Predict the 3D structure of the following.
Amino acid sequence: MKRYFLGIDIGTFESRGILIDESFRVAADASVPHGMDNPQPGWFEQEAEAVWWGDLCKLCRILIKQSGIRPEQIACVGTSALGTDCLPVDEQCRPLRPAILYGIDARASEEAAWLTEHYGQARVQDMYAGEIAASVGADGVELRFPVTFAVSVAETPRYPCLQSLEAEECGKKDENVPSLVLRAMKQGERLWDIAKLYRTTVEAILAANELKEESAAVIGKLLLIPRRR
């Protein structure tokens, strides 16, 4: 009998389930949306029975129907859900009230303020969050923590090489006129403008820089400008 593995994630606004076979091929994939209750300013809750358990059951039925497999072929079920929530239950694990959601619920703002005043900000951070600082506002809890970003940008410019040089005598009128010019295109400039300035042609500039068309010339990139003498 072919075996399958089922994974379900219960998220804040959506739950998703995936069914894979022993070769890690996806046999079925489905998601269902759900809401979040906000009964008072700063309060955020979810019905554990209807949302958490309800979504899991709903996704199991959808995935089994979508894949066409038998339930006994599912060898393993893995679940992930919202963490560090507060959900009081009775002796049979039935919810006594809606779950108080992690991180965003701010009903304990007075208690948080007392802890900070009693122990001090540094001690509270050390006990509960390390380098993470938390503050309670009207829209919930704001977390602040240091993040280090390292960005490495590497660019290898490509310039045409001089493969041969030819020396020739020049007259007085050409003494201060170079035969080769390296020039960067400016914003709004066209190759025609450069060609006119240096007494050459657009075709000659394209050929010298191994470009097929003028649009390939990049603003700020050095171009080799061949001069006519």
The chain has a mean pLDDT of 80.
